[in-house]
Amino acid sequence: MKKHSVLKYAALATLPSICHAAGGNLSNCKGGCPGGESCVGNPFSQPVSDSECSACGKGQYWWPCNFETLCFCASTDEGAPRVPPAPSSKLQVNEELDPCKDVLTEDVFNSIVQPATEEGRALFSYSGLCIAIDIYNRYHDEKFAMMGTEEQILAELASFLAHTAADTYSFSVYRDGQHCANPITGSDGNVYCSPCKEEHYDKQSKTCSEPWIVSGTNYEEFCDTTRTGEQGCDCKNVTMTSVPGYTDAIGYIAASDAFFPRGSIITQWNYDYLGLSLSLTGDKEILCNNPDLVATDSQYAWGAGIVKYMEKMQFGTTGETAHKQVMKGNFGGSVEVLYGDLECPASEWESLAHVDLVKVRVAEVCKAGAALGVYVEMDSCDTPSNCVQCEGLKDLYESCKKDGSCPYCETWTQFVRSSAPTVTPIRVESPSWEDWAANQPPHTSASIFITSSLFSKLAILSVFAISFVL
């Protein structure tokens, strides 16, 4: 047999395995759609049309039906929102518990989320988070902080708040510092930014010594012209603009025109903003027209984090999500999904900022877990299937407890009120506030120095350095 014939038949032999690579018909349309709905495509994820998805409800098991979020059931009525589904954890919705009223009370929230500035307190507010949760859950069958048992919901909230605390530098940063240097608010009430090249940006003072954008220069960052239309917001012609009320403002652009990093877990690039807008509103135009809503409106600031946490998949359109990993009690898996090799393990050769960020992430999950009365494993890959491991995180947690750099981790298990694979619960009820006050780590000058110096170091290293890889 000729060589090319052998290759031809070998290729044909592998075709079934390729078709079944994602496990058969995984689409949201499997089994057919309810009355008034049809199986439609999610072109934001991959270029796919409604006609290509139409057969998924009739038993087709190859592309695009073998990817969970490429085809989904939606109303075909004109103007009806078409919100792509979040990857499923296969858990039942917990209809008995409201995420805010019954689980994350405002007092508990305030013990975890403590912004240092008035702007941070306004943007990362309790009411804003509750609204964001309600909006997201209204549009999605796979819900945030409502899947499974009470313990799983508590673990979800603790993990999510740990990630957001780290990514926003303790809820103090809401726009990328380098790309929105020296921000000012014009007399029209809108924010204007002076983008800065790295060599001219002072990370400590967060100021720019030389304008990047001058007359005749376009700001083209964070906009991929190959992903527009149904796959991303259209790239705008962003040029230097005058700032109402300022006659000497040089090198400024309107913040509402740029897709630079923002949000409780970073949203960046034009395609991220389109996906976020679809997920929270069913309308891509809202955040495409004004991405700065993520830095000015609490529900979008929190919503950006919820969408990333619920929907970012390891391999684009396949793999685990942070949400699915935490539902298995595996905090380390959520770190791996969201940040990958930057933090699992963190290395100064890869990203010096992330060496410290992952330490903050561990410290914050201890703090949030203690406040909520739940324990989450750093690495639980010895038990569940499809577990994702964050290399080095468990060792970091242990060393963190020993050297005192994560004071809440030392007393975390004293507040556990439900069982976890490797922790015997000390309590059977939620800790009282008297218990909490009596058992908090002492705020010695050393512990205060460790915490404050760590965040200061992070701010100096990079404001939103994390954003460039998400």
Automatic annotation (TrEMBL):
**Keyword DNA repair appears in the UniProt entry:** no
* Superkingdom of origin organism: Eukaryota
Q: Which SUPFAM superfamilies match?
A: Lysozyme-like (SSF53955)
Q: Which residues form the signal peptide?
A: 1-21
What are the UniProt keywords, alphabetically? Disulfide bond, Signal
User: InterPro entries recorded for this chain?
Assistant: Lysozyme-like_dom_sf
The question of whether Endoplasmic reticulum is a record keyword is answered with no
Q: Which residues form a coiled coil?
A: none
Protein name per the record:
Uncharacterized protein
